[in-house]
Amino acid sequence: MKVSYYPGCSLHAMGKEYDLSMKAVSRALDIELKEIEDWSCCGASAAHNTNFDLSIALPARNLIAAEKDAMDVMVPCAACFNRFKMAEHHLKADKDLKARIEGALGAKYQGGIAIRNPIDVIYNEIGIDALAAKVVKPMTGLKPVSYYGCLLLRPPNVCQFENYENPFMLDKMMGALGADVKNWSYKTDCCGGSLSVSKTAIVVEMCDKLMAGAKEAGANCVVTACPMCMANLEMRPSPNMKMPVFYFTELISLALGLPDAKDTLKSHLTDPQPLLNQLRLI
Amino acid sequence: METFLEEVNKKIHGVPLQACYHCRKCSAGCPVASHMEYNPNKIIKMIQNGQKDKVLSSSTIWLCLSCETCITRCPNEVDIARMMDVLRQMAIEEGRAAKEANVLKFHEAFLSSIKFGGRVHEMLMTVHYKLKSGDFFSDVDIAPSMFLKGKLALLPPRTKDMKSIKNIFEKTKTK
Known about the structure:
heterodimer, A: 282 residues, alpha/beta, Glutathione S-transferase Yfyf (Class Pi), Chain A, domain 2, 4-stranded parallel β-sheet, 14 helices, B: 175 residues, globular
């Protein structure tokens, strides 16, 4: 299949491991990516916290640019995904807002393309069986907990993600890679990402709680699909609470034996290589 | 004259706050309720009571993480997360000092970065935030390793059509 691709600012900086592994996995699974022409930032938390119209106009600019190619747009960053879905929701529900935003952008919003995150695309378009069939290096010994966080799931009527209080797509995907996925109670809890820089003490507490939950469940790593969660969970837990955190696409890359799968492991702030070495997975 | 409740309801543009029957599910699920001056459901009550000053000058509106757990679990679909956005924007438009000043300063630094290049440059944004907040020493230990790992780009990324970005900021400007 072919989709429009919106990397967003994070995937070109802090979250570059996600961008690289996403591209590698897409190649391996025959998902052709076409980057949105001259994309711009989605506005993230900063826009919706301060100016509603701005928070709709910024993602709308990219949605309109993607509409030219008339394909589903795949948005790997959970924060960008959320802002895209939010813009779509409000533009479709509020005619006055739509007129104001179109005025600011000097272009019309059609609303005809679907906004999708890669978990949904891989799970529903490629399928778990097809993914499992491509595994050449089972992730034996890896005990991840799947961490979905907030932005893929909530609000549910906007994000339309499966089973928003107890999602399972990532769990099944990791299981298909041969990992021993652990069940836990914090799949959808917030990591505090939006206050990570400005109210760090609160966020340390939140991340420690998540890591304690993961350890209690018997996990040796955490799997995420959000660059905010990744940065936060790598930087903020107390030193004795840290454990490796992977983008789910990095583990797919490793399990599929993709040529550059090891490259992204070097730039993590919490080094996952000792764990993978110990399990003889790299 | 419009009451505070009417004003907030109009801006939320959804289920009116009067639908809240104070079951406190929002506050029970809120991950930062224990750090807030007033719990989310208390804020609703205060809006109903017309306590505008207290609400808009509270720490609560700035500590809300926008995790959207409240709206997800509200039995009456009161959009508390959207309410918090509305309250923050009202506080800004009225020129009130944010009780959690650094939270707002971070948002401002982030938006400046978009205004400057269309995309966020994390290093410039961080420097900007540090200059605004005076918080020079946090995370200085992490920065060098981020740089060595190639996570901090030297050159700011840029959207080519900057005119469209300028227009967006200009035309959505509130005051």
